[in-house]
Amino acid sequence: MKEKLKQLELFLKSTDFERGIKVGFGIAVPFTLLYILGYFEYAPAVVLGLFLNVPGDIPGSAKRKVNALLISIGLTMVITAIILFSKPFLPLLLLVLTAISFFVSLISIYGFRASLVSFSGLLAMVLAFAIQKETPQEILLQILLMGIGGLWYLIVTFIFKKITPKKDQNQLLSDTLLLIGQYLKLRGKLLTKKTKRDDLLKETFVLQHQISEKHETLREALLTERKRSGRSRYEEKQLLIFISSINILELIEAKHLDYKMIDAIFGERKEFLKASKKLNKIMGNHLIRLSELLIQKDKIPNKNTLLKALTETNNAITNYIDTIKLPEAREGALVLKNLYDYQEQLVYEIRAIRRVMANVKSASKVSLKKQDSNQFLTLQEYNINILLQNFSLNSSMFRHSLRLTIALVFGYLLGFVLNIQNTYWILLTIIVIMRPSYGLTKERSKDRIIGTLIGAVVAVGIVLITQNMIVYSILAIVSLILAFSLVQQNYKFAAFLITISVIFLYSLANPNAFEVIQYRVIDTIIGATIAVVANYLLFPSWEVNTIKQVLLETLKMNREYLLAMQNLYKEPTKNRLPYNLARKEAFLAISNLNAAFQRLTQDPKSKQKEFQLIYEIVTLNQTMISAIASIGNFIINHKTTPASKDFNNLIKKISTSLQVSLNSLESNEDKNKITEEVMEDAHEKLLDKYTQLSNLRDKNIEQGKTEIDTDTLHGLQEAFLISNHMSWLRTLSENLQKATKKYRSSMINT
Length: 750
Description:
By secondary structure, the chain is mostly helical. The chain folds into 4 domains: 1-165, no CATH class; 167-224 and 232-365, Methane Monooxygenase Hydroxylase, Chain G, domain 1 (Up-down Bundle); 395-541, no CATH class; 543-702 and 709-748, Up-down Bundle (Methane Monooxygenase Hydroxylase, Chain G, domain 1). The chain is built from 28 helices and no strands. Helix 4 runs antiparallel to helix 5. The longest helix is centred in the C-terminal third of the chain and has 39 residues, at 710-748. The two termini are 56 Å apart.
């Protein structure tokens, strides 16, 4: 019960619920004010204008949000006017419906924010069919009032922004820490769950993509909001938490361990890994609790559990050495030591977040130059060339626009021929659930139908109990507010609430509520069916045909990240910023690849060609980025020896292998060759360094010098990590080369 109350509190304090309240407030004010002034007939048009522009209100910089809302207001007004003036002439209306559907949906090529503006435009087009205005004066008044409604919503967003100026950023930070906490716990399970690793890895793909998306939004929200007078203390705190969350993600990625090596070293002795697994779980739960406290404003949890688990992890190294004995225990001890060092850094970053949240004065400050911070922003280009480049059947968004257009025109003609009462409900269902990918469209169709049916059943029950119009009004408003609050979290439940709201809003005008319920259900099923069939049959965008470009980008970014790590090893201080930028681009690329793979899993089984091969390539890329991050993280946090010629030779080999993979996917011949003999020699020399240090350590132990000094320990760690990870990277790059060649051959033959 206590947990449920906590979740309810978190929901009520969330930006999702605030958004619902914002919409409810925005609707209530014009209705009330115009009723008092005696102009209530104007209220629906004002509210419609507000409603149409809600989608563009998403977290981000204030400037981009205002621009998006202003464009959305203008677009919805123009589209509504065009539809209303065209309605009396069926051929013209069909032509207009076709043109608006295609070109407005194509706006989505400019990114997520643009896709929401596009949705507002499509929504305006569909709802214009429900507006009964005939004379030019009535139409122009309708458009004017809708514009006022849109501007009113813009004012409402400013009002709420003044009341809770940093709530969006806090919610984003909270969501990010929650996801990272879940990610940490999942990575802990990978240590010992040998038989479930494939399934767990697929779960990590989803979480990694979600975290990267949150980081991108936070970059825009936090790095573009810097005022000329500098940041406030509160903004400083948010930025510190954000930076720590990025560091934690890199540390997690840096320890995508060589599980085959771990299984080989520890075998049945997995009990020595349990302390590390437990620490991951405790750290994950700690981050989840901190994420809640960003919303709840409660006391920071005690750090003793965290520190105790860290101590137990360190003790596990000693226990392992005492049990297995040196020198046999050396490799296992070094694995545990490297794992401990990484977890110790994670604890440090978590404690940094704790200090910031606890307002500790000694918490570090951010020293990020404006020109440096700007380089971390991923800016969306709005060039006309992007539109022209996508004006081809090779573009998934172009095919989606064609598909959506045909589905909408067909839906409208079907409703017209069958004389369906509310044809626009069919069109509304199509634009709400139809997405570029078949899997997501099918999932949303299922959720929409189930939500609508449940909503209809509940509405029937309420209608049988009471026919009170006041009850209907309250239910309509409350369900609408909750629907807007939950549409991003639980689409099925949001569909249920929207159905309740729509049914009772219509019941206020139409006393026959059962008729409204009947048409609502039928039209939703028709619209959902059209959307799914259209996605399957009309210019289908199967992920297997589009994932190649994402693979190319990932390989390219991994190669650049590898070379940035090499430069970091040469001059850590000078090359830190370029390394961080390359890391960011590589993480974004792998995030996009993970998302593409998830879409592939949602396609029909018959369309998932070479699924296992693609999964292998995705996993190899994910593992490669982790191995690079592991070396980079070690270089940043330890004093290292100069990069050797053998290290650089191996980097060249790995880089060449990645370039061969790129060329293979692009169908180009590779001209970069490097002899395997040189590579074998370089690898052997790296291993020799570790062997020499290891033998020296053995002699010291034989002479009774059991205590190891810090320099020797760090030297052993560096030699062990570099030699093993470079060998690992080399193997990964060679496997990638083979897999991409096989993938290219299979695609050519199909």
